[in-house]
Amino acid sequence: MVRNVFAGGIRRVTGGPGGEVLLITGSEKTFVYDAGMAFCSSQLVANIKNELGDRRLDGVLLSHTHYDHLGGIPALRKEWPKLNVYGSAYGKAVLQRQGALDTIRTLSQVALESYSKDSSDRIEYRDKDMRIDTVIGDGSFIPLGDDQILVLETKGHTHCSLSFYLEQKAILLASESTGVFQGDRTIRAAVMTSYRDAEASIEACRRLPAKYIFSPHSLQIDEALMPVYWDLAHAALVELREFLISHLKAGLAEEEIIRIARDRYWTDYVKKEQPQEAFDINMKAKIALAVREFGPF
User: Which of 219, 217, 233 is nearest to 185 (CA)?
Assistant: First the structure.
């Protein structure tokens, strides 16, 4: 049975496959961390309404602008018209580019066809609803009432990646730049824009006095892993970097490296959350990044 209530009263309201959606309830404000995929947004809305009762949803804390983390935003706006989406300045600019919006829609449709029983369905929403309303950055604070949320820019997965720290409850909602926990002491490095930035993001999160950590595409990290969690995250980043560098030095073509990476990293755990097309796109970006940062080979 999936656990739905966590430290600090945080509740899992995820509507389906993709990024986890967490409901944060303060004495004055309520937020969700991310918004999941578009195709399961109706279930997301239902889950949130079930938890909030008569209270309204005030905002979305957007970790980054990938399709599996913001797809539900248009549906949330429809249900709560005064919704305020918080995200980075870079993320706001991304969502003002038609090319980015087209990619989000395409990958959202791929996800629907991969996970939905009725593949004839079409993703329907207005591009103008896929936007960031309030820009936040490193050191920003978002009030909850009885607590406040510290914003950290944690780049590496994307240039717009943010982590969120509930100060009074000492709860960290870590961005994908710091890795994705997959169970059994395994973390998958999710770097796509800078290995050096990802390493800096891991160290920035390590310095926080967090008592609880939530990993993206996962949930609350077990207490027994807390003392070594950031060591595991750093080791996963180094392992991916060395894996790619070794194959690039061996002269393998991009397509062959992606095939080998698929066998190694596209595990049953990942398949539940990420279609092959999205995995391949991400791996292609990781290979190009390794060439830029550590090449030529």
Answer: 233
Query: What dotted CATH number matches 7-230?
Result: 3.60.15.10
pLDDT recorded at residue 117: 72
Q: Fill in the amino acid letter for 224.
A: A
Contact 17, 115 (CB under 8 A): yes
Length of the chain: 297
Residue with tokens 């930035």: 197
Q: What residue ranges in 17-79 does DSSP mark as E strands?
A: 22-25, 30-33, 59-61
> What is the pLDDT, as a whole number, of residue 2?
63
The token pair that represents 97 in the structure block = 């580019």
How does pLDDT run across 153-184, given as a tens digit for each residue? 999 999 999 999 999 999 999 999 999 999 88
Nearest one of 181, 40, 43 to 111, comparing CA atoms = 40
In sequence order, which residues have a C-beta less than 8 Å from that of residue 280 and are 6 or more positions away? Answer: 258, 262
Sheet holding 141-143, edge to edge: 141-143, 148-153, 162-166, 171-173, 212-214
Look-up: residue for tokens 């800096």? 200
Task: Indicate whether this model's pTM tops 0.70.
Answer: yes
pLDDT digits 0-9 by tens, 110-147? 999 988 776 567 899 999 999 999 999 999 999 999 99
With beta carbons less than 8 A apart as the criterion, state whether 32 and 76 touch. yes
CA-to-CA distance for 282 and 259, rounded, in angstroms?
13
Q: Among residues 143, 21, 153, which one has the least CA distance to residue 91?
A: 153
